[in-house]
Design a protein that fits this description.
With 504 residues, the protein is α/β, with parallel strands linked by helices. Helix content is 33%, strand content 21%. The protein has 13 helices and 21 strands. The chain has helices at 48-60, 97-110, 126-137, 169-193, 201-214, 224-230, 233-239, 293-308, 353-365, 380-386, 397-410, 444-453, 490-503; strands spanning 13-17, 26-34, 37-41, 70-74, 83-91, 116-119, 158-162, 218-222, 247-253, 262-267, 269-273, 313-323, 335-337, 343-345, 371-376, 392-395, 415-416, 434-435, 461-466, 472-473, 484-485. The strands form 4 sheets. Strands 8, 9, 10, 11, 12, 15, 16, 17 and 19 form a 9-stranded mixed beta sheet that branches. Helix 3 links the parallel strand 6 (116-119) and strand 7. It is elongated and about 80 Å long.
Length: 504
């Protein structure tokens, strides 16, 4: 499952194993901090004497077991590998699934150029280790010549996950699920990392259609003519300043069964955001290639739901547009009519994400979903409030809290935020039903969600996930998170879908 034109895998091959094979180049083990120094975490893979020899070698070169610290030493003679890589897990009490995922990711990044590695981290948590290795090894190299400076070594090729019983159905099923999730996150990363010269609305829609069709989804793509005929004023208003006109993609997973819950997913797909006439500062504008991270995530998630065979109906909508300044662009002060008839005064053309989302949300609600999740790189205010790694979740109280709880459990760490009633009046317009921004900078993330709330049907349980910072890492890599696209919040959304399928 790749969104790019090549069919190259997006991560290493992941396989189960019961012992260390002779073909393995490197053994990856866990190292925890203990009261008397570091302690190896190898399960039953190594005998006591070998484990002690490995530990002695690690201590000799200063390994501490600090979380995500990577230390490499030559392997003892009785191990059929060239070297041992120890990755820190921190305190044994803190070595939960997310820490294993992060530590596996750190190890995978350090193993670039390695053909085959085996690991004992899978004995602690198979699924977390698999996801961490796959996502930590991910790199985006589509536009780099192999000989170019900085192209680096080939990523880790294969990981043999050591478990006590590799042939059991439970182990096979856990690995299959985790590998599918990791691949979906990588798909979202690929979309986000593809530059806007190569990923514009029509191309984004074509790639989404190909992915959906391959997964057996029903796919519908509305071009600019269909959008105009259908009255999608928000998507058209944002996209009309570009020579590369907008699209709306709908992907539907409809499993068989009675009484299944229905979930709508909506993701912002601004393939590049200059801000329009309300143009952004030049510094850092290149990062606006990531402004379609929400659409990337919902596309990857609905394809994953089909691949996992989830017993929940999923309708995913990805409004796609490029926000450019030109003679045809919308202006501050223009009034547009959203799908469904609500009029909006455009005070700031850089508050465009909410305009395309509003059209898609109204359309999604026409299908009478039980739940609706929208996600977007929506506001710089999200980063002001919560930083670069913590998504904000707003919406109907019960579902908002459910989404945030699940997100925290799986390591994406979304945080519930309020919708203060007093901010609603600040979205009043002198000429239209709504203004697209408030006249002040306070609570910008919350005000954007309050704007979206106007378009959500009253009987739908709704959560809005603002991932302006978390979906794109402008700093150095950490854990299983690379520089660039992160794939957040794919793991949150698929976990919520699984929870709904299981519990309604």
């Amino acid at each position: 499952m790749s969104p790019a034109k090549s069919d190259a895998p997006l991560g290493p091959e992941l396989v189960l194993a019961g012992s260390i094979a002779k073909r393995v180049d490197v053994l990856v083990i866990g190292l925890t901090t203990g009261p008397d120094g570091p302690e190896v975490s190898v399960g039953d893979v190594l005998d006591d004497a070998t484990a002690e020899a490995v530990l002695a070698g690690l201590v000799a070169v200063g390994a501490t077991g600090r979380a995500e610290e990577v230390t490499r030493i030559p392997a003892p003679a009785d191990l059929p590998v060239a070297s041992v890589v120890a990755v820190g897990l921190g305190s044994a009490d803190d070595a939960d699934a997310e820490q294993i995922r992060r530590s596996a990711g750190a190890a995978a990044r350090a193993l670039a150029g390695t053909a085959i590695a085996a690991t004992t981290l899978s004995g602690l948590d198979l699924g977390a280790a698999a996801e961490g290795f796959y996502l930590g090894a991910y790199t985006f190299t589509e536009f780099k010549a192999k000989s170019a400076p900085g192209a680096g070594s080939a990523p880790l090729g294969r990981v043999e996950l050591l478990v006590p019983s590799p042939r059991t159905a439970a182990a096979k099923n856990e690995l299959a699920r985790s590998a599918a999730i990791a691949e979906a996150v990588a798909v979202a990363r690929e979309f986000v990392n593809t530059p806007p010269s190569h990923l514009y609305p029509a191309e984004f829609a074509a790639r989404a259609k190909a992915l959906g069709a391959a997964a057996g989804l029903k796919v519908e793509v509305l071009d600019e003519k269909a959008l105009e005929k259908g009255g999608y004023g928000g998507i058209l208003g944002v996209g009309k300043g570009s020579s590369r006109l907008p699209r709306l993609v709908r992907l539907t997973h409809k499993p068989t069964g009675r009484g299944l819950k229905k979930v709508a997913l909506v993701g912002k797909g601004i393939t590049f955001d200059t801000g329009g006439i309300s143009i952004k500062p030049a510094a850092g504008m290149e990062n606006m290639t990531s402004d379609m991270g929400g659409a990337a995530a919902v596309i990857a998630t609905v394809v994953l739901a089909a691949k996992l065979g989830l017993k929940v109906g999923v309708d995913a909508y990805a409004p796609m547009a490029e926000n450019m300044p030109s003679a045809t662009a919308q202006r501050p002060g223009d009034v547009l009519t959203q799908y469904g008839g609500t009029t909006v005064e455009v005070i700031n053309t850089d508050a465009e994400g909410r305009l395309v989302l509003a059209d898609a949300i109204v359309k999604a609600c026409e299908q009478n979903p039980d739940y609706l999740i929208d996600t977007a790189t929506l506001t710089g205010a999200q980063m002001v409030a919560l930083g670069n790694r913590t998504p904000g979740v707003m919406g109907t109280d019960e579902f908002r809290d459910r989404v945030a709880r699940i997100s925290q459990e799986i390591g994406e760490n979304a945080w519930p935020m309020p919708l203060p009633a007093e901010l609603r009046a600040d979205l009043n317009s002198k000429v239209a039903d709504l203004a697209n921004v408030t006249p002040h900078r306070w609570g910008g993330m919350l005000a954007a969600a309050i704007f979206l709330k106007e378009f959500v049907a009253e009987d739908v349980q709704w959560a809005h996930i603002d991932v302006a910072g978390p979906s794109y890492n402008t700093g150095g890599p950490f854990g299983y998170t690379p520089k660039g696209g992160t794939g957040v919040p794919v793991r949150t959304m698929i976990s919520v879908l699984e929870d709904i399928a299981a519990n309604g």
